[in-house]
Fold this protein.
Amino acid sequence: MSTQITVKDVVKLAWPEFFVQMLIVVACITEMFFIGKIGVVYVAAVSIACIVTTLINNFLGECEAGSRTLVAKFFGASDQDKINKAFLVSIIVPFFVGLIVAAFSRQISFLAFYMVGSSDVNQIGYAYLNTVLKAVPFSLTFFSLTGFINGMGDTLSPFFIRVLMHVANVLIDAVLIFGMFGFPKLGIQGAAIASIFTYFLGCVLSAFVIFNKQFVAGKINFNLFKSSFWQNWEVLKEYLKISRNVGFQFGFCDLAMYFLALIIERFGVNALAVHQIVYYQVYSSLQLLIYSFYVACWIIIGKIFGSRDYLGINPAIIKICKIVSVVALVSVATIIAFSSFLGGFFSPLNIEVANASSVAIKLLGLNLLVDALYVVISGGLLGADDSRFVMLQGVFSEYLILLPLAYIFSVTCGMGLIGVYFAFCFRTVFNLLTVGWRFFVSREWNKVENLKPEQQYEPAYFSDYNLQFGLQNLIDEDIFVPTNVFFVEQPFFKKPRIFR
């Protein structure tokens, strides 16, 4: 019998991630408020530096994805040895990659501000970015360790870790930026130092949670290190593959948003203002809620996939889609009802921008109903170790669907900014159709589900299902394990085992 999940299981995993994202937003706004107090030139410098750090975190910070996917799968399979190996990989690989970034921080900072015309912004921004890049070894390691904790079915501990981190960050920002309690007044250099300390604290707290909850066995020694990196590369290769694929997806999608802004810029300052309000303020805020279900689905499907309960995958994803559809419907109905208010709230002095924002909010709100399903199903594919398809599909849809259609609708057809958002809608429908086909039609668990009960066996190498079932069954029958050995009905996330 397949593993059973409930609405409570899904919400229990989703809500901490939602509040984590909200904490990040509040912390960033607070830090920018402090920096704004010391001058607009500092805000400009930090804004440019944030573009660089965001790109680095998107391309490299998805080591979190590698940890989350692998650990959820190994946890579902009750493979403690591979969980221990994943823990080592989750610390050593991101820290080493981060050290490389930190070693080249001067060169990266120079290139980032080379084209900036203002000498003040150039000088201040170079010094700030050069310092803040020293935090990258700790930030990448922190992301990876929180992914590890998520994969073990614990999304609450990272929430509390984030609370402590961001409270500490805000306090240290205030002390070092303004020179309180006898500390020197360091300006934005103080904010950079606060970032280093904050991510270092996050690494320490994450490691404490992992060992305190005994997610890893006590035998973390040189032999395990040797088997993880030199004798058996299986875990390391999977980790790098998933991190690379998800990192490329998010990184190149961010670049696509930059190119989209260049298209929108053709229609003037008002169009850019509308896009900032509608996409980056309203729509992105709604996506925070959807992202929490994306993470929950990623973990749940990863555990089911790892336990080889292939018959339980489709019912689980359908249940999560129903839940997120209800959440998205309520959210969309709310923002559509208040679209005029939101347009006026963000642009009280420009009626044209307010009215255009109101119309665009309605259109992107309807888009969210489809986007929510796409996000959840793509999270399920990531949990089922299909990161390469998700990466290729995401990059393809941004560069060959969204950007060309945005230009055609807005410029060629003369639809302006509304044409850009129609392109968003077409892109989202395409995304849902492709990941839906991949999940419900193409993947191999459908083939197992269609077998008669007496034929339901697991091949030794599931990715090459047809060849294995046709040949290996004749040659070496004893490696085929009856499905019902694995399918034991149980609560989805029981209390983690304690390893002594």
